[in-house]
Amino acid sequence: MSDVIVKTTNLTKNFPAKKGIFRRSNGCIYAVHDVNLEIPEGKIFGLVGESGSGKTTIGNLLVRLIEPTCGRIQLNGQDILDLKKSEEIHFRRKVQMIFQDPYESLNPRLTVYETVAEPLIIQEKRSMHGNEKELLYALESAGLTPPQDFLYRYPHELSGGQRQRVAIARALIIRPKFVVADEPVSMLDVSIRVSVLNLMLELKDNFGLTYLFITHDLSIARYMCDWLIVMYQGKIVESGNTEEVIQHPLHPYTRALISAVPIPDPMVKRRRVELSEAMEDTSKPPLRCRFYPKCETRSPICEREYPEFNDKGHAHFVACHGV
Amino acid sequence: MRIGTKRKFGLAHLLFKGISQEALGKIGIAIIILFGVMALVSPFVINIDPDVYDPLIGVDPLIFSSQGPTLTHPLGTDHLGRDVLSQLLKGSQIAFLVGITVGLMATLIGTAIGLISGYFRGATDSLLMRITDIILSIPSLPLLIMILCVFEHRGIWVIVMVLGLTGWPITARVIRSQTLSLRERPFVQSARVSGASDWRIILIHIAPNVLPLTFLYMTIGVTYAILTEAGLGFLGFSDPTISSWGMMLQWCFSTGHTFKALYWMIPPGLSISLLALSFYLVGYSLEREINPRLREP
Lengths: 323, 297
Ligand SMILES: Nc1ncnc2c1ncn2[C@@H]1O[C@H](COP(=O)(O)OP(=O)(O)OP(=O)(O)O)[C@@H](O)[C@H]1O
Ligand SMILES: [Mg+2]
Description:
The structure holds 2 protein chains of 2 kinds.
Chain A: E1 4-19, E2 24-40, E3 44-48, H1 55-62, E4 70-75, E5 78-79, H2 85-94, E6 95-98, H3 112-124, H4 132-141, H5 160-172, E7 178-182, H6 190-207, E8 210-214, H7 218-224, E9 227-232, E10 235-241, H8 242-247, H9 252-259, H10 300-304, E11 310-311, E12 317-318
Parallel strand pairs in A: 3-8, 3-9, 6-7, 7-8
Antiparallel strand pairs in A: 1-2, 1-4, 4-5, 9-10, 10-12, 11-12
Helix pairs in contact in A: 3-5, 4-5, 5-6
Chain B: H1 11-21, H2 23-48, H3 50-53, H4 84-120, H5 122-137, H6 140-150, H7 156-166, H8 169-182, H9 186-193, H10 198-234, H11 245-254, H12 262-290, H13 292-295
Helix pairs in contact in B: 1-2, 1-12, 2-4, 2-12, 4-5, 4-7, 4-8, 4-10, 4-12, 5-8, 6-7, 8-10, 9-10, 10-11, 10-12, 11-12
Bound molecules: adenosine-5'-triphosphate and magnesium ion.
Magnesium ion (MG) binds near residues 56 and 182 of chain A.
């Protein structure tokens, strides 16, 4: 395996759960719990799981939009949680994020020029003017051609796909090493998804990027990712090589997830494992396996202790007592 | 390559669109222009003969009591023989001066407090919002009169300062709530990921997005200032050395001419209502274009 670029140790994020008219804090939501990740450099690392499983929270933690409750995050071996102000700006240079909704992630009152140039202006203390060369290159790399046509447009003059390309150009203009892409195509029209995904693959090679690619769509994950992590209610339940995880899912949750994906090949029949409807209260302290209430193969031990994360060979890890 | 930005989405464009779409907005603008012209004409009228047409010390030597309209005094004179039209024109100047200055001051303070409060939240927010609550909860006219009584010489600038320094709480609240929601938007997060400082985020990403709303509240602030200054003037708490519309009413009333000299009473009264209404109309017609709550279906 290549070098590890991002490593987390026991990463945990609790949100206070505020209920009632006085919004008193009673208990908390364990959005991310004890997550250990090792993201290899130059790879696309997929994060899948249903809505509310904590994917965005992990992404936000890795780019330091939010601070973890506890745990450590390292970038190239350096702890990023206790950086000094002067070091933080260097960290911001190496890590970028592509957001889910391109209608929300661009400031409606800034031109494409102003939006894309901003990281350059902040990082290199440049002035607003005279960045055309870098901008045209970044826009062209992001597939906006001819780039000079886009410089002085406002977001409302762009299509969704074009907006996402602007967001990508903005993320790449300072040549980051690590990019968190939080469901980058889920808000886009199906017809342009593949072209944006292909662009991201192309840019990864050209710019030597590492992606954390968050998605709830397993077919997109399969198309994009080298490695896959499956999350369920703030916990990693399975991880491994993408093909390995999708072909031989071990965790009952992963199996349910995969059988819920439309099957591209009609000759292959798969049994649908139904996820029962009962929503589990995420705000309880996590002792038992999170999937216990919905699990088909549960046994008494699953209620008493959380399963260890075990290597089942071929770097395929799973957290389940039943496997 | 195209040089120069095309500000299709700029504030001016938005204001123009908002005003031109509503008939009421156009009426408002027309009234404002009318009074603007009156304010500009004022010095020329005085210069015809300052001894006669100065709104305060110019006295027609032939007239010793209030008289109705004549050729030399189209709106008549007051009880001292001073020209009512000249006072009215000067009053227009004063109204703009007071209205715009107070409106600007109050919205600037309110916007700054709202931005800081909503962006930094926490203790800063609590402190600023408690101050806002206090100012809001005290009835404004008695408060103003109380403050004004502290000053021995109530120049017009004292009035402007007092109105400006107390007129911001509503703007502050509205801008704060806008800021609270804007600060969570992905484009602000995106700026944060790129290393933008708090002040950069406030000034470049949040402020331009609240600017139209700020402008809307400024029109309301101007209305408030014009009406309040007139009210204070009528009650005798404004600057007596300036012929503001409120003072004109006060002179008319205190000398017992209220319904005997309509040529003297109606012009300032009507002017106050019209100018206040015009800014209100402009704000009203802008609101649909600007207020995010009305825009979303
Ligand atoms: N700022 C917050 N305050 C309180 N709770 C939060 C906050 N952000 C997220 N949560 C909670 O944390 C949990 C995980 O949320 P997260 O957004 O990470 O899920 P997700 O996997 O990205 O879901 P989706 O696929 O819908 O984007 C959810 O239960 C959510 O309600
Ligand atoms: Mg999410």
